[in-house]
């Protein structure tokens, strides 16, 4: 069972209790969970064959209305999201430099239903080397710049002596970004081809042509039986990078939390059409 599915199931038991109001907001907890997974993938840094370091401190920026709905439950929601990140890291064999924390913040420039995730790596004062896969040592010491927001206090020259080195400056030949774990210092394997597919409700649909039309029509390449989906709703176009284009649908598309008519896709991109969620995947080889 996937990490996101387990996360959803854990929350199901709380829907009629503490989290009842949370699920009335435009931004759903599972959307944030997916964004945190992508944040780990996109900021993975290879230290050596045994260690791929990812951020452990996350800021989730929400619109004012969504923040007001979610903030009263930020403690419990933060714990659930941190647990999801830990499970995902164990699955991907990622490593942390310190404890995992997820914080909610209000962003006045975001509209209802939109969110933004920032992250950084905070080292634990008790850790002289990255912790093992999925580990989260206690007693975090804030140090170093971030992958998405300003350095914490103590990040400059006055930082405590003996603090562990930060992955913001990885060893020579280290790789970063969504393909970091796959390529290593020597880059992608010669002649490797990119495989692309989408996942809808657990079903995989291979993308074998340069375009793929999604919609409710039987003429669509992938038919989606959802009343909120137009007959020819959107089209995925493969390339470097791959993109998705709205085809004049009634309800539009949401890609990685952003309402849009056209967007670039990356491995793990989350596409919402009507009430259906589509996960875009790609891999070398």
From TrEMBL:
Biased composition (Low complexity): 128-140, 149-161, 174-193
Organism expressing this protein natively: Streptomyces boluensis
CDD domains, per database record: FHA
Name of the protein in question: DUF3662 domain-containing protein
Domain FHA: start-end pairs: 212-260
SMART domains according to UniProt: FHA (SM00240)
Superkingdom: Bacteria
Organism lineage string: Bacteria, Bacillati, Actinomycetota, Actinomycetes, Kitasatosporales
UniProt feature, compositional bias: Pro residues: 162-173
Keyword Ribosomal protein annotated: no
Region described as Disordered: spans on this chain: 121-194
Keywords of the record: Phosphoprotein
PROSITE patterns, A to Z: FHA_DOMAIN (PS50006)
């Amino acid at each position: 069972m996937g990490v996101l599915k387990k996360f959803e199931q854990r929350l199901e038991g709380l829907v009629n209790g503490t989290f009842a109001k949370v699920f009335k907001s435009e931004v759903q907890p599972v959307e944030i969970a997916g964004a945190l997974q992508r944040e780990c993938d996109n900021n993975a840094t290879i230290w050596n064959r045994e260690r791929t370091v990812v951020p452990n401190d996350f800021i989730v920026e929400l619109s004012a209305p969504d923040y007001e709905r979610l903030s009263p439950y930020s403690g419990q929601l933060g714990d659930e999201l941190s647990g999801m990140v830990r499970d995902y890291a164990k699955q991907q064999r990622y490593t942390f430099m310190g404890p995992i924390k997820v914080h909610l913040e209000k962003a006045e420039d975001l509209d209802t239903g939109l969110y933004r995730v920032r992250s950084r790596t905070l080292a634990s004062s008790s850790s002289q080397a990255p912790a093992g896969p999925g580990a989260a040592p206690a007693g975090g010491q804030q140090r170093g710049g971030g992958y998405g927001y300003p350095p914490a206090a103590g990040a400059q020259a006055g930082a405590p002596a003996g603090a562990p080195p930060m992955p913001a400056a990885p060893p020579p030949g280290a790789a970063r970004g969504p393909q970091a774990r796959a390529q290593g210092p020597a880059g992608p394997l010669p002649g490797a081809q990119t495989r692309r597919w989408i996942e809808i409700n657990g079903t995989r649909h291979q993308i074998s042509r340069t375009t793929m039309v999604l919609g409710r029509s039987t003429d669509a390449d992938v038919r989606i039986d959802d009343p909120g989906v137009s007959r020819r709703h959107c089209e995925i176009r493969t390339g470097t990078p791959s993109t998705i284009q709205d085809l004049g649908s009634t309800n539009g598309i949401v890609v990685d939390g952003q309402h849009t008519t056209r967007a670039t896709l990356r491995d793990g991109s989350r596409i919402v059409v009507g009430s259906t969620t589509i996960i875009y995947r790609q891999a070398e080889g």
